[in-house]
Amino acid sequence: MRLEHVSKTFSNGTIALKDMSLTIGAGEFISLLGPSGCGKSTALRMLAGLGEPSSGKIVWPDPAEKSASDKSEGEIGFVFQEPTLMPWATVFKNVWLPLRLKGISQAAARPRVMEALEMVGLDKFADSYPRELSGGMKMRVSIARALVTRPRILLMDEPFAALDEITRQKLNDDLLRLWEQFGWTIVFVTHSVFESVYLSSRIVVMAARPGRVIDEIDVDAPHPRGIGFRTSQAYGDYCRRASESLLSAIGAADHL
Amino acid sequence: MTSIDQGPAAAHAAQETAHPEPALVPAPSMPVTERVLRVAIPLVMLAGLIGLWAWYVAAYNIPKYILPGPDLVLQSLIKDWPILGTALLVTLKITFAALGIALVGGVALAILLTSSKWVELALSPYMVILQVTPVVAIAPLILIYAPSTQSALLICAWIVAFFPVLSNTTQGLKSTDHNLLNLFELYGASRWQTMIHLKLPAALPYFLAGLRIAGGLALIAAVVAEFAAGSAGAGSGLAFRLLESQYRLNIPRLFAALILLCGTGVVIYGATSLISHLALRRWHESAIRREN
């Protein structure tokens, strides 16, 4: 899929995103890296069909599935920054939701829901309520819900930003395993340089005011990645490169 | 996450369970002494107050037409039960009918108000007017317009009871988590699906808070409306019996009627609280016991 000169201006006049062009290939793991206010979440939401671009267009590979609203029928899985679970429903019912909205009964959905829960290691917690789970487990449920429709594209909006460092590292590893295993396309929004280098095959560096793309970094390190990569010289070099790119974006005019 | 790179998934999941606050599981059995005290303290308090009342009446020789002792009130309650019981039934009928219509009407109107801001702009001023006008003041008008006294009482009680349901449910419907709304939009949910699966469950705690207020108010309004209507005779409720006892200086019966009303109010409050607890205990913050 491709973004062609996409811009987004909010009704209060804020330019959230200016002239963003990006080609996303199948099976890529792309990180949108940037400070807050750089439009990375806005870009992701437009990819998901939440809000139309003010100008420019988003192009999908299959002409039969052009419009963004059609894409939401199982093509795309979306993971929010918060777990965004329904507190009144069990883990099972939360994961069942995307299928339920398409009219699939609980019995018919059960195998797929349990499969998704198994992927994130929570099949034993199907009957728990969200409040009985830790922050990391809630996020896993959220990921399982995104996976249950068997999407080809997974959009993740700073999914691990609210987690502690240890849990976050664990989920990073797990996400990489799943990606290596299933080969989805993932677009991952983050403001962490280290997270983006560790996970991605390509990093898109963005700057704020107005939100725009300023750099792209290919991360060629082989998979599977693990602690070896995380402590390697190459990892350090990529992190430095991404950090310098970010710093140049912040520029002299911005007072942080 | 996957079970390919590590041991059994349950093992690391269990590690994570240890992370949140320990007392999230619905209240285990509390200590026996605490359970006994929970029942005993209110009972001892009640017995003490009744004892004080009996002692005061006896010690200061209070005449029974001023303040009857508890024994006399109990006697009157038993002796006059045929009269008081029928009156109670009439009051209960009005209370619950009004509450029922208030619940259905309040929720329906709340859904209507939140469905479009134009509808809200058009209707909400009248909802407020209906609420702020004292029901005693409009009761005479309603009495003229309503086909029967009973229906007039019902309308009065309904006006009072329905507002808390409406305003709480409206607030609840508006407070739906924005991210969850986005999620529903993302998965192509229809308006109807969003209402049934998201907005109504999200509004449930607010609605139940409204129900608890409305339950008490419906009873109060049923009594006040009857006062205002001045209904009398065989088919009347407890309010008429209260006034009648006062005119006849039958103060023990007045107290007996009052106790029936109090008891009814307490039972209604208890019932609505129980409903609220049962509906929310698995998931809502308000129903969770925490230990720190």
Description:
The complex is a heterodimer of chains A (256) and B (292). With 256 residues, chain A is α/β, with parallel strands linked by helices. Chain A has two domains: 153 residues, P-loop containing nucleotide triphosphate hydrolases (Rossmann fold); 68 residues. Chain A is built from nine helices and nine strands. In chain A, the strands form two sheets. Chain A has a six-stranded mixed β-sheet, with helices on both faces. In chain A, α3 packs parallel to α5. Chain A starts with a strand and ends in a 6-residue tail after the last helix. With 292 residues, chain B is an all-alpha fold. Chain B has one domain: MetI-like (MetI-like fold, Orthogonal Bundle). Chain B contains eleven helices and no strands. In chain B, α3 packs across α11. The two termini of chain B are 31 Å apart. The relative contact order of chain B is 0.12. The N terminus of chain B is likely disordered. At the A-B interface, α3, α5 and α6 of A face α1, α8 and α9 of B.
Summarize it.
The complex is a heterodimer of chains A (256) and B (292). Chain A is of the alpha/beta class and 256 residues long.
